[in-house]
Amino acid sequence: MQELTHYINGEHVKGTSGRFADVFNPATGELQAKTPLASVAEMENAVAIAAAAQPAWAAVNPQRRARVMMKYVALLNRDMDKLAEALSREHGKTLPDAAGDVQRGLEVVEYCIGAPQLLKGDYTDSAGPGIDMYSMRQALGVTAGVTPFNFPAMIPMWMFAPAIVCGNAFILKPSERDPSVCLMLAELLEEAGLPKGIIQVVNGDKEAVDAILDNETIQSIGFVGSTPIAEYIYGRGCSNGKRVQCFGGAKNHMIIMPDADMDQVADALLGAGYGAAGERCMAISVALPVGKDTADRLIEKLAPRVESLKIGPYTSGKDVDFGPVITAAAKENILKLVQSGIDDGAKLVVDGRDFSLQGYEDGFFVGAHLFDNVTTDMDIYKKEIFGPVLSTVRTESYEEALKIAMDHEYGNGIAIYTRDGDTARDFANRINVGMVGINVPIPVPLAYHTFGGWKKSVFGDLNQHGPDAFKFYTRTKTVTARWPSGIKEGGEFSIPVME
Length: 499
Ligand code: NAD
Prior knowledge:
Shape: globular
Strand order of the largest sheet: 15-16-17-14-13-19-20
CATH topology of the largest domain: Aldehyde Dehydrogenase, Chain A, domain 1
Bound molecules: nicotinamide-adenine-dinucleotide
Number of domains: 2
CATH class of the largest domain: Alpha Beta
Number of helices: 16
Oligomer: single chain
Helix content: 25-40%
Radius of gyration: 25 Å
């Protein structure tokens, strides 16, 4: 069995803690690798190397740092198929979806090529007599990121590309479920010209994360994962004086108005509800049709489509719609929630519980499920299922649908399907969710906008990527300068105001 490594100072380094986590092939259920789980000492060593390398990197001019990103884009495109294959092998998502995972990360790298412009400061000439004032954005030092299993390429790139182009060093702690693609991404960055020690991949679990949280050298932490861990990392990181942003779980709704084109809605829900086996923080997991007739038409159109979804291993390429879930435990949790929905009285319109694939009986496959008549007090409504399960909550009015979505504790993404501009406009203005789609089921903002939810889907102030990332990964310093000709004699004892 393959033993994975850390990536420290430009080298693949074996773990020394003696602790490992299992990495499976979710399609076959086979244990294919073990990844080392770093000790506190291993994390401290990685941070010390990064801290020693960072000042020289911050002193490289922004244009040259941007050139590394330019070259990196070319290398990511060169190795796209290899990266997608490594990602699918450990995650289970289809190959086209894995390539999309790399692509959406690559687009943030492209945005980072604009660093020289994005890092420009402000300047006020003659703010007072003979006085000039300017502000600059400076790197933080050593930064760190803790990432989830479901986008093992995209989310690390969303963090390390802006962090590094701003002049920081970055410690990446990937998910222990699918870390291989992160090791490849780090290697490619150095091939693109990044000095050794600026990107360090330290594999691990809670012990490694706690070592990041308590390390005095690390200045900032980015986290993406489930809400309880987001809340924990935000609390402990902030109380240790770090800059922290944490993105948590989700339960995304789609409101379907009576005037929506139901074929479009059904097609949109297929991809948004079941793509990547529902293991996306922007997956739609609740449909909110408005009116009985809308709900009846929705179920009629959707059920046969859900029944005909093709589920299989990534090796089938484009011939499958989605693959297995990440672990046997994830599968068990999803099926337990499905059972709770049945026990609570929801109607299981499409039942995927008996799904089995010949030759892949040990894989972590879960069939597609569609529920109708779900109510807001049920666990299948309240909890994030993170599986191929779509719940339909019938509503009588737009206001009722809006209120249901607004009352949910999560606020990552949401969509409305309607042909009415007034309704769409009202919805976009009033909804308390961070990313809103109007006739767009998965409204993930592009690299030059920012990504982030509201409510319990986020802890912190700034979003991911786009201009917010350049704020998160830099500190503002403001200089007030006066040269001898402007200096008056004698002390000044009252607060200075500009004359
Ligand atoms: P997770 O919270 O289990 O793990 C995320 C990271 O935290 C991993 O690197 C893991 O090693 C680490 N971790 C786990 N337990 C820890 C602990 N007790 N202490 C410290 N660190 C710990 O999440 P996951 O299962 O990998 O990912 C799925 C979750 O991520 C879902 O809830 C999904 O909605 C969320 N997610 C959110 C976004 C977003 O942008 N809001 C994006 C992707 C995924």
